[in-house]
Design a protein that fits this description.
Blueprint (H helix, E strand, L loop, with lengths): L3 H12 L4 E8 L3 E8 L5 E8 L8 H13 L10 E7 L2 E7 L6 H6 L6 H20 L2 E2 L8 E3 L5 E3 L4 E2 L11 H4 L17 H17 L30 H10 L11 H9 L24 H21 L1
Antiparallel strand pairs: 1-2, 2-3, 3-5, 4-5, 6-9, 7-8
Helix pairs in contact: 4-6, 4-8, 6-7, 7-8
């Protein structure tokens, strides 16, 4: 059996027969991702995803790889990393994708300088826009985690790694909710549900937001299939000094154990995160002048004002 290191070296050499400047980006669960320049596409830099070879009867890598390729092309969206083409290179499948990164949301979480509230809300808003668009198309990410939320050169979100269809009877066990999810971000029902639902992504988005606010990654390098304790968000202690307690309540609702108690959309969740930072009724904006304020001063009112002013002058002269 070929080792993954030897596999990466072998694939790199094979890709260099078709692409230029091939560089390894990262090794994932189901395959390897490279960046490369594509001479067939005006020398544009692309991401190349290559699956690990299936071993024996285990075809999970191949099944998930083809589903990734299918869903990457399903919903064109500015905040979703687009699939461009599938090619055969030296007898192996290669998925050519829009290149984003190398910065990812998990890098924001672990950065020495905590993300500002504005940055967090911007990232979460773009993530919500992408996820809600997927849900409207009947797609559930199912494997959402910070490392699958890439950031392009301008800092905008590019979601990747979608695997599930809402309400689908999975064609293979490799595409059941429990098999595709990351335990640190999986909703409780994802462990036993046979079909995917958007509420699973709302939960994962809640965990990602919690990590961004606290700067604490929940779990790293967790073995697949290993359950962890549910996320507990304090009710009466702010996550950090610049955050109101309303943020806690929004996070608690997004990660509620009961999917029916969560927000209906990821966008509604982000609205709740942003609400404490929005001007309130206690500080109303100054509106336009009323019609009464725009009426000309009547002559009778003017005479009254002049008489009062003259009276004040006379009184001042008597007492000085």
């Amino acid at each position: 059996m070929i080792t993954r290191t030897a596999f990466v070296d072998q694939i790199t050499r094979q890709l260099e027969g078709r692409f230029q400047e091939v560089r390894l980006l990262h090794t994932g669960e189901n395959g390897v991702v490279f960046s490369a320049r594509d001479p067939a596409d005006a020398d544009a830099r692309r991401a190349l995803r290559v699956p690990f070879p299936s071993e024996g009867a285990d075809v999970a890598h191949t099944v998930r790889f083809h589903r990734l390729a299918e869903l990457a092309c399903a919903v064109p969206h500015p905040y979703i990393a687009a699939g461009i083409a599938m090619e055969q290179v030296a007898g192996m499948d290669v998925m050519i994708m829009e290149l984003a990164g190398p910065l990812r949301v998990d890098h924001l979480v672990t950065s020495a300088r905590p993300a500002t509230v504005h940055r967090i809300l911007t990232v979460m808003r773009e993530l919500a826009t992408a996820l809600d668009a997927l849900h409207a198309a009947g797609i559930v990410h199912g494997a959402l985690r910070p490392s699958r939320v890439l950031l392009d050169a301008s800092g905008h979100v590019k979601v990747t790694g979608m695997l599930l269809r809402s309400g689908e009877a999975p064609p293979h066990t490799a595409l059941t909710p429990a098999h595709v999810g990351d335990p640190a971000y999986m909703a409780p029902e994802q462990w036993h549900s046979t079909t995917a639902a958007a509420a699973m992504d709302v939960y994962a988005a809640g965990v990602i937001a919690f990590e961004l606010y606290t700067g604490e990654p929940r779990v790293t390098r967790l073995a697949p299939g290993v359950a962890i304790h549910p996320l507990v968000i304090p009710a009466n202690r702010s996550l950090r000094p610049d955050l109101p307690l309303a943020i806690n309540e929004a996070l608690r609702r997004a990660t509620h154990p009961d999917p029916a108690m969560r927000f209906a959309t990821v966008g509604a969740f982000v609205d709740a995160l942003a609400a404490p930072h929005t001007p309130t009724a206690g500080h109303p904006a100054i509106g336009p002048p009323t019609d009464a304020a725009l009426q000309p001063v009547r002559s009778s009112d003017l005479r009254t004002v002049l008489l009062l002013a003259a009276l004040v002058v006379v009184l001042l002269m008597l007492f000085l």
